[in-house]
Design brief:
- This is Transcriptional regulator, MarR family.
- One of its GO terms (molecular function) is DNA-binding transcription factor activity.
- There is one protein chain.
- The protein is α/β, with parallel strands linked by helices.
- The chain has three domains: about 60 residues, Winged helix-like DNA-binding domain superfamily/Winged helix DNA-binding domain (Arc Repressor Mutant, subunit A), CATH 1.10.10; about 130 residues, ATPase, nucleotide binding domain (Nucleotidyltransferase, domain 5, 2-Layer Sandwich); about 160 residues, Nucleotidyltransferase, domain 5 (2-Layer Sandwich).
- The chain contains 14 helices and 16 strands.
- A five-stranded mixed sheet has the order 6-5-4-7-11. Strands 14-13-12-15-16 form a five-stranded mixed sheet.
């Protein structure tokens, strides 16, 4: 009889990440309460917390004596002084960098011009990170990890398979950026990354099954199922924006026709408005036209809302998530899109499934992609933290190279 071997290192890594996030979400929690909430035995918790304290990730504080009998209470907190994580959201026209402490608290935000030329985009991202570090008076040594979120297909190995709106194929953009930033870098599809951020930092912290849909230049989806993002065997699952809504319909950036993205994305809505002679150039212009009762804007948004609702109905019938979260431009346009979307949704979703599904707007708003990058960097950091962090680290050792 063959015994099943237990991967103790993997279990320890999973438990470490679990305890880290409980402490992060419950500052000042006691070790006893941590054991109750996590279900991990006290001896294992003691070992993990000691390791986290030694590496400067967790800080213990003891309550001042009260004169009462019993041991003083020891509170556990994530030590934000350990260093910084950078989240990079890449779009064709702009690259946004959010700098956060290791507990996920954003402390700097920088936007630089984007580029569809890979080397130029990598250099611009590096300059954005450098500017963010300078804004908090931190040096290169303070940067513990970087996460990149971009609109496109990303393999399990972290390579860009195809990013139609950027024009990139089979590209290792993380390696290009690594030549400038000497720290761990993790790359992911922007909406999958945003789904992780929604679970770690957003309103879906206690939801283990939800679908995250984000719009901007395109429409992307993140299937957060059973407590993690579902990537499929090659890492490419979740391309909600390329569901076929209209056979032989509008051309999509992916090269096909009739995709949801071609009807519901910010770019598609603006293109349709322009084709009808409207002057809106961004989401603010769309919202302004809607608020003013512009008939052209109303008609275009009505059509987009119809297809959004139809796409959501297909998702609900197939996946049956507890929640659907709208992010990015879909979150901003929700007041304009949802009236038509809800009619279409209820007309096409199975009622028995639909009644248990909640439709919400993400609180992350336009921060979804860069905060998704922060979430990726945090995952990378927890998977392989440096040996020693904390106040002894030279956080002022000059700007990044």
């Amino acid at each position: 009889m063959t015994r099943t071997r237990v991967n103790s290192a993997l279990i320890r890594r999973i438990n470490t990440g679990r305890l880290f996030h409980i402490i992060r979400q419950n500052p000042g929690i006691s070790q006893q309460r941590l054991s109750i909430q996590s279900g991990i035995d006290p001896a294992t918790i003691s070992i993990i917390i000691t390791n986290l304290e030694t590496t400067g990730i967790v800080r213990r504080t003891t309550d001042a004596p009260t004169g009462r009998a019993g041991r003083p209470t020891v509170a556990l907190n994530i030590d934000a002084r350990a260093g910084f994580l950078a989240g990079i959201g890449i779009e064709p026209d702009a690259i946004r960098v959010t700098l956060a402490t290791i507990d996920g608290m954003a402390c700097a935000d920088v936007t630089v011009a984007g580029s569809t030329e890979p080397e130029a985009a990598a250099l611009a991202a590096h300059e954005g990170v450098a500017a963010a570090l300078r804004s908090v008076k931190a040096g290169r040594g303070a940067l513990l990890g970087v996460g990149i979120a971009l609109p496109g297909l990303v393999s399990l190995e972290g390579r860009v398979v195809f990013a139609p709106n950027l024009g990139w194929r089979d590209l290792d953009i993380a390696a290009m950026l690594a030549r400038h930033l000497k720290c761990p870098i993790r790359l992911e599809n922007d909406v999958k990354a945003a789904a992780i951020a929604e679970h770690l930092f957003g309103a879906s912290r206690d939801i283990t099954d939800f679908v995250y849909i984000m719009g901007r230049s395109g429409i992307g989806g993140g299937l957060y199922m059973m407590g993690e993002v579902y990537r499929g065997p090659h890492g490419l699952a979740g391309e909600i924006g390329h569901m076929k809504m209209v056979p032989g319909g509008r051309a999509c950036g992916c090269g096909a026709r009739g995709c949801l993205e071609a009807y519901v994305s910010e770019r598609a809505i603006l293109a349709e408005l322009a084709a009808k002679g409207h002057q809106a150039r961004d989401v603010a212009g769309i919202l302004r036209g809607f608020e003013q009762g512009d008939a052209i804007v109303g008609a275009v948004l009505g059509e987009a809302g119809y297809y959004l609702g139809l796409g959501l109905a297909n998702l609900i019938n197939i996946v049956s998530p507890r929640r659907i979260v709208l992010g990015g431009s879909l979150a901003r346009l929700a007041p304009c899109l949802l009236p038509a979307a809800m009619d279409s949704l209820h007309a096409n979703a199975l009622a028995a499934i639909m009644r248990d599904v909640e439709l919400v707007v993400s609180v992350l708003g336009d921060d979804a992609a860069p905060m998704g990058g922060v979430a990726l960097a945090l995952h990378q950091f927890l998977d392989d933290p440096p040996i020693k962090l904390g106040r002894g680290r030279d956080h002022g050792a000059g700007p990044p190279e």
